[in-house]
Write a structure and sequence with these properties.
Two copies of one chain form a homodimer. The first copy, chain A, is mostly helical. Chain A contains five helices and two strands. The structure holds a DNA duplex.
DNA sequence: TTTGTTTTTTGCAAAATTGCGAACAATAAA
DNA sequence: TTTATTGTTCGCAATTTTGCAAAAAACAAA
C-alpha cells in the first residue's frame, strides 16, 4: 500500500492540520508544548483560563490530527509534539505558501 | 491606535487563518487561485464538484479571513489572493513552525 | 479497602459549519 | 420590457464544534 501523494490528498492533509490549528487555544497549546521540557496535562491546564474538560477535548483533537502525542506516567499524562507529523505539517504549509506566491504574476492588479 | 502584536493576538490571527484553511475545498480554491491568471467565480466553480451556492459560501469565508478579495466585472466577479494578508499568513505560519521545532530539545523522547 | 491525585469521558446545551435548491440582485442584450 | 447571464443570499436540515460540570477511570498510598 503506497502512500497517497496526489495533490488532492495533500490538500486534504493540509486542511486537516489547518483545522486542528483553527482555534486560538489549540495554537496556544502547540506553542506552549514547543517551549517546555515538562508538558504534563496539569501544566497545560494551568496556562489556560478554561475548564480541564475543555483542555482535554482540545488535546484530543490535536492528538487525532497527529500533531501531538500523549504518554501516561501514572497518574499524570505527559504530552508532547509529534515531531514526525509536525515536520510533515511544516512541509505541507511550506509548499502551500511557497507555490501560492503568485510566481506567474497571476492574481488581480 | 497601534497594531496589536502580542503573542496572544498573533496566535488568534494564526488561528483565524488556519480555520479558513481548515476545509479541503478552501485549500483547493487557494491553490487554484494561486496558479491562474483568470479567476472568475465560474472558473472556480467549474473546478469543484459542488453547488455554486456552496462555492460562494466558501469564497465568502476566505474573504472574511482576508485571504482573498473579489472584484466585480459585471456580470462576473473576479477573485484573487489578497497578497498583503497572504504574506502576513505566510509570516505567521513561518514563525509558528520555526519556533516549534523543539530547538531547546524539549518534547518527549 | 478507603482515600487521594490526575486526567478522561459523559451528558447536555448553545452556537457554528456544511451543503443545497430556490429565490433574488445586477446588469447587458434583444 | 423581456430575456439571459453571473453570482449572492435565503431558508432549511443535518452535522460538528465548543464549553462545562459531574461522573468515571486508573492507579498509588494509607
Amino acid at each position: 500500500m503506497e502512500k497517497d501523494t496526489t495533490l488532492a490528498s495533500r490538500q486534504e492533509q493540509l486542511a486537516r492540520f489547518a483545522k486542528a490549528l483553527g482555534h486560538p487555544t489549540r495554537v496556544a497549546i502547540m506553542c506552549f508544548l514547543a517551549q517546555q521540557t515538562s508538558c504534563y496535562f496539569g501544566d497545560i491546564h494551568e496556562e489556560l483560563p478554561i475548564a480541564k474538560a475543555t483542555v482535554s477535548q482540545h488535546l484530543k483533537e490535536l492528538k487525532e490530527a497527529g500533531l501531538i502525542q500523549g504518554e501516561v506516567e501514572t497518574p499524570k499524562v505527559k504530552y508532547c509534539i509529534n515531531r514526525e507529523n509536525w515536520e510533515k505539517a511544516r512541509s505541507l504549509f511550506g509548499e502551500f505558501f511557497g507555490q501560492c506566491l503568485c510566481k506567474s504574476g497571476a492574481c488581480c492588479g
